[in-house]
């Protein structure tokens, strides 16, 4: 992180790229930095090699919540000095430990392992699982009342579509939801796990759709929210919008609901307006207040569809139906 000499540093300046922001936030997600031996053994033990969650520190939810609170409060200006020293020390320590966590658990299967086990033990089938990256992950902190037994959040900050595809079974299918909402792709554009073509992104998302359909889970495919990931190319907004067009076509081909967040959250230059975001990428609480009713309508629409992904009755069309706006 850059040094601060008194003056407040806007979050956009502090996070000089989407990739850098994701690295910091993913570090916070990794929990405590210490990798001391626990009940499951150390990283060198055979048990730890066989089970990435054995001996790994628990996810530090309170640490993460403190860090992202300023992202979620509309109009908040962030300075490095505004964070308590102990919080900054923990964040820096966890950032250093992030490489170890990724080497043990690249798709971060351990993040929601305990929650998933609780859902399965309860025998209660969720209505919806939200699969995604930081846009989905932060939502549960911005609007906790929206999530619970019925609506399960399985977002992980910084993740790309190949990581989500790996964890799609334990984090979605095993929970047996009626609907899955997939919001993914911006971190692929940012190159978080290496360069990706649009086709690679679409293939991973199509694979998630196929898995959901095979397990009788209805699908809502969301557009990317407005952003300009610098690593996406010379015109990142144009590339993101082009990918959204392809996602819309994919939804039509697969006969799933397309949820258009982008057009409802787009401001000048194709970016998210300042009223809806504090850093140009992540929605704040005002941004999530726009997203929630759009998602609720799309989910309701998916629940009205037959399992084949087509509307019931005479209103059947030849392609995916876009969320009623």
Structure description:
By secondary structure, this protein is an alpha/beta fold. It has two domains: 11-104, no CATH class; 113-315, 3-Layer(aba) Sandwich (Rossmann fold), CATH 3.40.50.1110. The protein is 45% helix and 7% strand. It is built from 15 helices and five strands. Strands 2-1-3-4-5 form a five-stranded parallel sheet, sandwiched between helices. The protein is globular and about 50 Å long. It starts with 10 loop residues before the first helix and ends in a 21-residue tail after the last helix. The relative contact order is 0.12.
Helix-strand layout with pairing:
Layout: H1 11-14, H2 18-29, H3 46-50, H4 61-72, H5 85-104, H6 113-122, E1 128-132, H7 134-137, H8 139-142, E2 151-155, H9 161-166, H10 168-171, E3 179-183, H11 186-189, H12 198-214, E4 218-222, H13 236-254, E5 257-259, H14 262-265, H15 285-304
Parallel strand pairs: 1-2, 1-3, 3-4, 4-5
Helix pairs in contact: 2-5, 12-13
Percentage of residues in helical conformation: 40-55%
Structural class: alpha/beta
Radius of gyration: 19 Å
- Examine the secondary-structure arrangement and name the CATH architecture of the largest domain: 3-Layer(aba) Sandwich
Rough outline: globular
Largest sheet: 5 strands, parallel
Give the name of the CATH superfamily of the largest domain: SGNH hydrolase
How much is the average pLDDT?
A: 80
CATH class of the largest domain: Alpha Beta
Count of folded domains = 2
DSSP summary: helix tally: 15
């Amino acid at each position: 992180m850059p040094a601060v000499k008194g003056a407040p540093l806007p979050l956009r300046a502090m996070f000089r790229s989407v990739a850098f922001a994701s690295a910091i936030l993913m570090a916070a997600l990794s929990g405590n930095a210490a990798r001391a031996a626990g009940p499951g053994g150390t990283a060198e033990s055979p048990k730890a090699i066989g089970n990435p969650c054995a001996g790994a520190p628990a996810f530090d939810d309170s640490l993460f919540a403190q860090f992202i609170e300023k992202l979620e409060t509309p109009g908040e200006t962030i300075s490095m000095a505004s964070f308590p020293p102990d919080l900054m020390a923990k964040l820096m320590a966890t950032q250093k430990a992030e490489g170890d966590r990724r080497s043990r658990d690249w798709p971060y299967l351990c993040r929601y392992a305990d929650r998933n086990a609780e859902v399965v033990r309860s025998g209660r089938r969720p209505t919806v699982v939200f699969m995604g990256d930081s846009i989905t992950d932060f939502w549960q902190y911005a609007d906790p009342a929206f999530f619970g037994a019925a609506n399960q959040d399985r977002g992980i900050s910084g993740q790309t579509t190949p990581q989500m595809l790996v964890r799609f079974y334990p984090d979605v299918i095993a929970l047996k939801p009626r609907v899955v909402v997939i919001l993914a792709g911006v971190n692929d554009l940012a190159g978080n796990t290496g360069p990706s073509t649009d086709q690679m992104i679409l293939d991973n998302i199509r694979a998630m759709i196929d898995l959901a359909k095979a397990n009788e889970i209805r699908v809502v495919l969301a557009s990317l929210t407005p952003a300009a990931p610098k690593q996406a190319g010379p015109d990142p907004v144009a590339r993101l919008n082009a990918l959204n067009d392809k996602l819309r076509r994919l939804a039509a081909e697969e006969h799933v609901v397309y949820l258009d967040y982008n057009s409802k959250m787009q401001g000048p230059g194709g970016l998210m307006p300042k009223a809806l975001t504090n850093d140009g990428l992540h929605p704040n609480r005002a941004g999530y207040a726009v997203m929630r009713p759009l998602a609720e309508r799309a989910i309701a629409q998916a629940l009205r569809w037959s399992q084949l992904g087509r509307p019931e009755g005479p209103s059947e069309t030849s392609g995916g139906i876009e969320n009623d706006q």
